[in-house]
């Protein structure tokens, strides 16, 4: 079974996923301490089965991870009905007040401006120039974070999400709690300001919804972490894939109408979130594999995305691919609430790149982040 810390596996996990799929749809991974569903149908069943839930267990010792645990105990992602039903209804109501469409022109303007700077420079790190600043700027706009505070958001997010990796050293765990504490304090102050001076931002609408202050704070943090990390890595992984397949890059340059299908294909081809856990709330059977109450099973999203039963020639990048639904945004009641905004961001980035830098190419070897669950690059040197 694969070692999630092996650099060779991290460089290209997909042959190992294919080997596992050929052996069966679900396997026990002793190193991870859970079962993993590797076929598309089994992974989809894990995400949709109501006997499998997101059952949060506090990081321990609990007194050392007060802020981290508070964020997750109050998160939409880590709760099941009836709490999840109330949270999702309230958060969806706030989102549905036009925030996503309100931001579309801003997203396109931000993406175009960032790519224009990269084009003027002639070369640079695509992660630093576009993939990282775009989603954080969008989330900052969504929450109306003051300009002077926006540079703090990415370091907080990067530190907190490392807690989702397996075998994180204590140094990283301490850094995650410190970041969570600072982020929570900042958002409590911001929420208090919005109570006194409401605005056209999401925090104002969340405060008016049926949410506690802890739930408002946890929602804002979730939006940053999920929205930022996923979008950064789809843009980074996706553009790298396109530049390794120059015929697909050229198709996109020549036909801007393919941007919509290209977004979905890039999410599928190199999934930014590779694994998503569930805990059995009763005895459950997934594709013939028995999961006892209290045991964990995970949907291995990267493996599901390359399943030949669903995707023809799954190891081929095809920006015009149609048919087959990837699981990159999840499925069931935990389907990503920020998916429409993420799609707008990724599409805006691709459109700006193909328009302003049609001759984009690699300027060196990218450096990969050494994590498995959240799959992405640390650098992506490019030149126009």
Account of the protein in words:
This protein has 384 residues and is α+β, with helices and mostly antiparallel strands. It has one domain (7-383): Cytochrome p450 (Orthogonal Bundle). It is built from 16 helices and twelve strands. It has helices spanning 7-11, 14-23, 40-48, 66-73, 83-95, 99-121, 126-131, 133-143, 153-161, 170-196, 202-207, 213-244, 246-254, 259-269, 301-304, 339-356, and strands at residues 26-29, 34-37, 52-53, 123-125, 275-280, 284-286, 289-291, 296-300, 361-362, 367-368, 377-379, 381-383. Strands 1-2-8-5-3 form a five-stranded mixed β-sheet. Strands 4-12-9 form a three-stranded antiparallel β-sheet. Helix 4 crosses helix 12 (213-244) and helix 14 packs across helix 16 (339-356). The longest helix is centred in the middle third of the chain and has 32 residues, at 213-244. It is globular, with a radius of gyration of 20 Å. It starts with 6 loop residues before the first helix and ends with a strand.
CATH class: Mainly Alpha
Strand content: 5-15%
Judged by helices, strands and strand pairing, the structural class is: alpha+beta
Largest sheet: 5 strands, mixed
Number of domains: 1
Overall radius of gyration:
20 Å
CATH architecture: Orthogonal Bundle
First-last Cα distance: 41 Å
Unreliable stretches (pLDDT < 50, length at least 5) are none
Main sheet strand line-up: 1-2-8-5-3
Topology:
Blueprint: H1 7-11, H2 14-23, E1 26-29, E2 34-37, H3 40-48, E3 52-53, H4 66-73, H5 83-95, H6 99-121, E4 123-125, H7 126-131, H8 133-143, H9 153-161, H10 170-196, H11 202-207, H12 213-244, H13 246-254, H14 259-269, E5 275-280, E6 284-286, E7 289-291, E8 296-300, H15 301-304, H16 339-356, E9 361-362, E10 367-368, E11 377-379, E12 381-383
Parallel strand pairs: 2-8
Antiparallel strand pairs: 1-2, 3-5, 4-12, 5-8, 6-7, 9-12, 10-11
Helix pairs in contact: 4-10, 4-12, 6-8, 6-16, 8-12, 9-10, 9-12, 10-12, 12-14, 12-16, 14-16
